[in-house]
């Protein structure tokens, strides 16, 4: 961040190219020092926070065998036979209470799959899994599966299929994504992928273990999100004054989100313990503040969209200044905020739909129960998503004017680049006791 001078370009190169779309004109040396005076202490505080809160790994615990807290190994389906469901005691009473035996071709046939354990100390061991015809997950021969291991169960019941192995299609999709990013973004795309990797590293090596160790989730989220923001923005967009303005705008918006989130999560009495997963976490680590964990999720979830908005607004103001260096702070702000209004309308809609899509099964359950909108919104499961969405959206909306005015102030204060040249050559307006400048 001390390399803000990388914005600077020789004056001879800039002269006569005020309408180019290359690198932005430099801000003054004084302003670079002001920006550095703000960001260097902030970055130092983030680094101190990382060191002070660094967990050194997630704490160990005795496995409960519930949900994700199970011992698992890899397996493979080596054989599948079709058998009568009655012969393997697999007939269940349907939810509608109909006890009529299944009729029709294949309706009474179950799959009797032989599974081989391919990893762990029981590698090579086989067991049988019966799959009913109406089961949502069907097994086929040579399919990779994930098997759960229960050491305290009887030997014949120690292993069971808990999921399918989908690592290859997931890895292939990730590879296609990386190729698309690099093909379109080129070097910027490569740096974006590196920044994404670093972000996941901060999340998995710092944020999650630190919360499990008992550190305050809000403090951990603020430090971790700040580290991700600094690394990602400077890595993707370079250590320039333009990036620094986006960082400051993002920081101010994150602070607003944190304050609003803390206020309304407490006011609405949201516990953060609303499903089996959060219940399991609370059971294993009762010292974790679940409402604080909810607030930490709001902050981290809002960061990615905030980066997009602040960088876009800052770049828009810089480009407007290059296109018309005579524009002052007010003119740049008005033009930039018009761009921001279009951007924020689409981003807020995207954020709301993303949360609604994630909660779609839950909303379907409420629809089946024919609950009113008030009842649905009042339930803690939905109220969490509403607070998360609205608090994040308020932060996004606020980031547009905040970042736009910061960028307009910084780029208009340039007295050494294109703006100074344009203002020096612009005619002086007539005023009291002054004469309009005339050409010789």
UniProtKB/TrEMBL annotation:
Sequence segments annotated as region (Disordered): 1-26
Q: Which Pfam families match?
A: YibE_F
Keyword set, alphabetical order:
Membrane, Transmembrane, Transmembrane helix
InterPro entries per UniProt: YibE_F
Q: Which ranges does the record mark as transmembrane?
A: 34-54, 168-185, 192-212, 218-236, 245-268, 288-306, 344-366, 386-411
Q: Where is the composition biased (Basic and acidic residues)?
A: 1-12
What is the name of this protein?
A: Membrane protein
